[in-house]
Amino acid sequence: MPLWEIIDERWDEQLHGRLHAAGYFLNPQFHYSHGFRDDIEVKGGLHDCITRIVNPEERAKIEIQLDDFDKWANDMGYSVAVMTAGNEVPSVWWSPYRSSKNLCVVY
């Protein structure tokens, strides 16, 4: 097997992990881009990570916020959030949404 095929095979295994799927879903630059794929593998990875990190009560809050994130609703629909989604580092973009009222999965 040629070297590049070995590298590609290992790279594909790494990128299809749960944590990478969660990162892909939660990165506003990818999530709001034209070619975003919100498929079973991506959602499954995200939900597996959430389940491992938080308790059921917090998970319910996160699910509501993820719905807002998907629909550009509430705080995430403000013009400044929309304008900066593809221009800021994801951790900076998400920072306004991590108050006690808006529990955020990435922190």
Describe this entry's structure for a reader.
There is one protein chain. By secondary structure, the protein is mostly helical. It has one domain (3-97). It is 63% helix and 0% strand. The protein has seven helices and no strands. The chain has helices at residues 3-15, 18-26, 28-31, 40-53, 56-71, 79-84, 90-94. The longest helix is centred in the middle third of the chain and has 16 residues, at 56-71. The radius of gyration is 15 Å and the shape is globular. Residues 102-107 have low confidence and may be disordered.
Strand residue percentage = under 5%
Helical content band? 55-70%
Number of domains: 1
Count of runs of 4 or more consecutive helical residues:
7
Radius of gyration from the alpha-carbon trace, in angstroms = 15 Å
Number of strands: 0
**Mean pLDDT figure:** 79
Helices and strands: which structural class? mainly alpha
Shape descriptor = globular
Task: Report the end-to-end length measured between terminal Cα atoms.
Answer: 41 Å
Order of SSEs:
HHHHHHH
Question: Looking at the chains present, what oligomeric state does this protein adopt?
Answer: single chain
